[in-house]
Specification:
about 210 residues; Cell Cycle, Spindle Assembly Checkpoint Protein, Chain A; 4 helices; cell division; HORMA_dom; nucleus; cell cycle
């Protein structure tokens, strides 16, 4: 019976690598979802995928797909090296260059964990439930976020530890804050290795 007990406990153990995969995958779906919900790309450039018990829209546009794969590979590396502090998705008005919306995912990493560490005890099912709740909330937020005027472009900003070098595809950036903004805290999820807190800042209406 000892052996089966051990097999069972390791199945629930979330390692740094396992957690990194879950968080990176979440970022991929969350970014796609926001780009779809906020109309940054036309709806016909998305297809429905089944994930987290939800139907989620994922881009079919080749250039965007390539870009996101590249970004997520780097995010994965920064999560593994425990350097990622936050990922920010910025929506900018193409004409005025003004930041109109800023989606922030704050990342906390367990200080002690290394790639060799024993996993943390939390079931993937529980984590998936927490992720599902955030994704639902992102989708629902469209109902109260102000309508985005004009064409918008997006950028992804990553905040990393001082020591981590900026890869060649990334450049140093200013934080691109939204002026006169309202911030709304969204849910968070935790793998016990990483915890991710989401929020969105947006321009208040009637401020021309």
């Amino acid at each position: 019976t000892m052996a089966t007990g051990m097999a069972q406990s390791s199945k629930n153990a979330i390692t740094l690598k396992g957690s990194t995969e879950l968080v990176t995958e979440f970022f991929g779906y969350a970014v796609n979802n926001i780009l779809y919900q906020r109309g940054v790309y036309p709806p016909e450039e998305f297809e429905r995928k089944h994930k987290y018990g939800l139907g989620l829209m994922v881009t079919t546009e080749e250039k965007l797909k390539e870009y996101l794969v590249q970004v997520l590979e780097q995010i994965n590396a920064w999560l593994m090296s425990k350097d990622l502090q936050k990922l920010v998705l910025v929506l900018t008005n193409v004409q005025t260059k003004e930041t109109v919306e800023r989606w922030v995912f704050d990342v906390q990493t367990d200080a002690e964990i290394t790639a060799e560490s024993e996993g943390k005890d939390k079931s993937e099912k529980e984590i998936m439930g927490e992720i599902q709740a955030i994704i639902r909330q992102i989708t629902a937020s469209v109902t109260f976020l102000p309508l985005l005027e004009g064409e918008c472009a997006f950028e992804l900003l990553a905040y990393t530890g001082k020591e981590s070098a900026t890869p060649s595809e990334w450049e140093e950036s200013d934080p691109k804050f939204v002026r006169d903004s309202v911030e709304m805290k969204l849910r968070s999820f935790s793998t016990k290795v990483h915890s991710v807190d989401a929020s969105v800042s947006y321009k208040t209406e009637g401020d021309e």
